[in-house]
Amino acid sequence: MKLDRRLITNFDWLMLGLVLTLSIVGIATIFSATRPIGEAPHPTFYLRQSVWMGISLVGLISVVSMDYRWFHRFSYPFFALGVFMLGVILVAGHKGMGAQRWLAIGPVSFQPSEITKISFIMALSRHLAETSKLLNMRDVARIFLVFLAVPLGLLLAQPDLGTGLMFVFIFTAMLLVAGVKRQVLIALVLTVALAVPFLGSVFWSGLKQYQKNRIVAFVKPEMDPSGIGYQIAQSKITVGSGGFLGKGYTKGTQGVLRFLPEKHTDFVFSIFAEEWGFIGSVIFIGFFLLILMRGLETAVKAKDRYGYFLSVGIVFLLAFYFTVNIGMTLGLAPVVGVPLPFMSYGGTALVTNYLAIAILINVKMRRFELFY
User: Fold this and answer.
1) Does the N-terminal or the C-terminal CB of the chain have fewer CB atoms within 10 Å?
2) pLDDT of residue 19
C-alpha cells in the first residue's frame, strides 16, 4: 500500500517535539527528586519511566498509523470494555494509598481508569457527532445515564475523586461545545444552585477521611501545617524557594531531604519549579499551552464532526489535568491525586497521554483525505 505523502507533510512534528521534550524533562526531574542521601542506591523510578516512554512512543506510532475513523467504528465496544474493567477493580483490584485503582496482569499493574478516559471521549464524541441538533433536557439526561452515570459511580467507589471530576468536566464541556438549548442551561444552573447544600452534605459524608482532610487542608492550610495541611504547605515552600532563576538542576533540597511527599508523582512540578525557578516554570507552562493550542487548531480544521469532538475532548482532558495539578502545587486546588501529564511518574498515565496526543496527530494528518 502506497503511503500518501500528505500524511507525512501534515504530521504535527511540533506537537511530537513538545511532548518528547516534556517527557525527557519529566524523567530528569524524577531522577533529581528521588536521588538518595549519602551512599544509598538511587531508586529506579527514572529508569522505569524511561522504559514506559519507549513503550508510549511505540503506542503513539501504532495509533498514528491507523485511520482515526476506525476508532469511530469501535468506540462503543471500547467504552464498554473500559467500564467493565472499572467494575472488575472493585472485585479484584489492588489497594494502595487508601484507594483500589489498580489491576495486575502478571508482573504489570495498570490503572483501567486511564484507559477508560480515552474510550469515554471516543464514545461521547461518536454520539455527539451523530447528533446534529441542539440538545434538550431529555437528551442531556439520556446522555448522562448512558455515558457518565456508571463510570462515575464506579470511580467514586474506588475512590478516585480526581478522575471522577475529570469525567464530569469533560462531559459538561463537550456537551456545551456540542450545543444545548437555552432552557437547559437555565434549568441546570437553577438545579445546581438549589441542590448544592443537599448534595454537598451527601458528598461530604461519602468521602474517605483522607479525602476530607485534603479538602480541609485546601480551605484552611494554616489550621494544621504539620498534619493535614503539610503537603500543600511544603509544596508552596518548595515552589517559592526556587525564586526567579531556580537553584539549578539537582540542587534542590525539598525533595531529596524528604520534606515534600509524592515528589515524583503528584508534586513533580514543585521540584521542577524549585530547580528552574519562575523563568523555567513560565517556559514549561508555555510549552503546555502550545500543546493545547495545537490541539484546538486540530479540532477546528478536522474534516468531520467526529474528529472535531475527539480533538476537543482530548484538549479538555489535558487542560483539566494540567490546571488541577498546577493548582494543587500552588495551593489553588485541593489535592485530589491528579498527575501532571508527561512529567509525573506513572506508566499507565504516560502511555494514555501519548495515545491522546497520537489521536490529535492522527486527526491533523488526515484532514485532507477524501471520505470513502
Assistant:
1) N
2) 96
User: What are 7-42's pLDDT values in tens digits?
Assistant: 677 788 999 999 999 999 999 999 998 888 777 778
C-alpha cell at 337: 491525586
Q: Which residue has the cell 503537603?
A: 231
pTM for this entry: 0.86
Residue 370 lies in a domain: no
Q: Is residue 372 part of a domain?
A: no
Q: Which string of DSSP letters, residue by residue, matches 169-208?
A: HHHHHHHHHH-B-HHHHHHHHHHHHHHHHHHHHHHHHTS-
Q: Given a cut of 60, is residue 270 above it in pLDDT?
A: yes
Question: pLDDT digit string (tens) for 158-205?
Answer: 777 788 888 989 999 999 998 888 887 787 777 666 655 554 554 545
* Residue 191 half-sphere exposure toward CB, CA atoms < 13 A: 7
Q: Which residues of 147-181 are buried (b: 16+ CB within 10 A; e: fewer)?
A: bbeebbebbbebbbbbbbbbbebbbbbbbeebebe
- What is the DSSP secondary structure assignment for residue 94, as one 8-state letter? E
Task: Decide if 32 is inside a domain.
Answer: yes
What distance separates the 2 farthest-apart alpha carbons in the chain? 66
Q: Is the dihedral of CA 47, 48, 53, 55 positive or negative?
A: positive
Residue 371 lies in a domain: no
Mean pLDDT of the chain: 83
Task: Give how many domains the chain has, as a whole number.
Answer: 1
Three-class secondary structure of residue 322 per DSSP: helix
Residue 18 has which C-alpha cell? 513538545
> Domain of 241?
5-365
